[in-house]
């Protein structure tokens, strides 16, 4: 039973927002599920696509907390650290270390949660550099990679494979 509790808190959700094209009324109805301060944070984005990703990110956070911990939406209190990482203000005795993180880029919004360890998530779209080769682009980050990481990135790889491998390393 304890193992079920532990694995039940570990979630990985990914949403492709490209296909969701809400009308203004549908967008407002979805945003109305959130507290006013989160709606204001979404409205600060100028581009519709950015607002959509922000809304889905917020809805994922509330849905995750509700599904994992059983807290009703209106009782969930999500705050952010100084660095911008979301956290659950209301703590439960059974899940004191429960934490989650979200990320979005391009067409995807994701969320991950853990019960016992800190979780991080970064979604990155692999894009080809403009005005320089893949190797020139990656060379800009050479000082941040270990020797092993560098070898994994550049060893016998085509330019596209180098970029894919590069984005795989934190």
TrEMBL record:
Residues 19-114 form the 4'-phosphopantetheinyl transferase N-terminal domain. It comes from the Eukaryota. Keywords: Transferase. It is an enzyme of class 2 (transferase). The keyword Methyltransferase does not apply. Its EC number is 2.7.8.7. The keyword Transferase applies. InterPro entries: 4-PPantetheinyl_Trfase_dom_sf (IPR037143), AASDHPPT_N (IPR055066), P-Pant_transferase_sf (IPR050559). One of its GO terms (molecular function) is holo-[acyl-carrier-protein] synthase activity. PANTHER family: L-AMINOADIPATE-SEMIALDEHYDE DEHYDROGENASE-PHOSPHOPANTETHEINYL TRANSFERASE (PTHR12215:SF10), PHOSPHOPANTETHEINE TRANSFERASE (PTHR12215). SUPFAM superfamilies: 4'-phosphopantetheinyl transferase (SSF56214). This is holo-[acyl-carrier-protein] synthase. Coiled coil: none annotated. Pfam families: AASDHPPT_N (PF22624).
């Amino acid at each position: 039973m304890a193992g079920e509790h532990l694995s039940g808190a570990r979630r990985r959700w990914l949403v492709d927002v490209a296909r969701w094209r809400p009308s203004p009324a549908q967008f407002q109805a979805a945003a109305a599920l959130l507290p006013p301060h989160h709606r204001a944070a979404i409205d600060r984005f100028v581009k519709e696509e950015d607002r959509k990703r922000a809304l889905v990110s917020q809805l994922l956070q509330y849905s995750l907390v509700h599904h994992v911990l059983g807290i009703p939406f209106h009782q969930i209190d999500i705050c952010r650290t100084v660095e911008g990482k979301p956290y659950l203000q209301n703590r439960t005795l059974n899940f004191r270390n429960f934490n989650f993180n979200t990320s979005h880029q391009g067409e995807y919004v994701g969320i991950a949660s853990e019960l016992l360890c800190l979780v991080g998530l970064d979604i990155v779209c692999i894009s080809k550099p403009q005005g320089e080769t893949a190797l020139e682009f990656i060379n800009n980050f050479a000082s941040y990679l270990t020797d092993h990481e560098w070898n994994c990135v550049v060893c016998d790889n085509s330019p596209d494979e180098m970029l894919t491998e590069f984005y795989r390393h934190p």
